[in-house]
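FORM 7B: Structural annotation worksheet

SECTION A. Query
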Amino acid sequence: MANEAASAERFVADVLSYCQGFKAISLFVVLDGASQDQTLVLLRQLSQREPQLKVIWAPENRCVVDAYVRGYREALAADCDWILEIDAGYSHQPQDIPKFFDQLDLGCDCVFGTRFSRAGQHTESTWFRYGLSRFGGALVNLLLGTQLSDMTSGFEAFTQETLRSVLRRGIRSKGHFFQSEIKTHCRNLNIAEVPISYRAASPSVNKKVIQDALLNLARLFGARLQGKLK
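SECTION B. Predicted structure
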């Protein structure tokens, strides 16, 4: 979460409201130097009243991937059985959360949100971002042998064993491609996709991000050709 002071408390409440029926629930919110407003202060205050909220301050983060990985490690350290990843600021909608738990409950190893299924939605975004996601996903599926309709979505859920396996394999991308890297590591597992509503894509896709994606796609494709991509 970054620079979400206007909606942070409401977002926390909404997420927790859709995570019911479990023995224990923890919401790990990761913030770092990218957040320049009062989000950290507000959430620290809220955590005094809401014990399910765990505020993680990570000033050492150097990129967005570091924030995600820190969240994964915090959840694993807390011995969470299921770990759900969701972007803050309502780009992902909390009301979609139960779909992920339903599939995990059916025995899936991981569940990925898709904006591009018949029931999915992708709104308030540029045609460039939409087209880049669709083309990029198709290219990854072709080169890496994955078969998902949405290879770049960041709304997803894992069993503890699956997420530990992903981290053991390693995440080398430092840009948005890391979501495709994760899905590639999971491609031989019991996977489900669920439709999600996605709003207002980040404008942060630039030449450096695209270069990172192409380099890591080439690396993984090379590993596949050599039989090293398990």
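SECTION C. Observations
Residues 175 and 209 are 5 Å apart (CA to CA). The helical segments are 8-17, 39-49, 64-77, 97-105, 127-144, 160-169, 178-185, 207-225.

SECTION D. Sign-off
Analyst initials: ____
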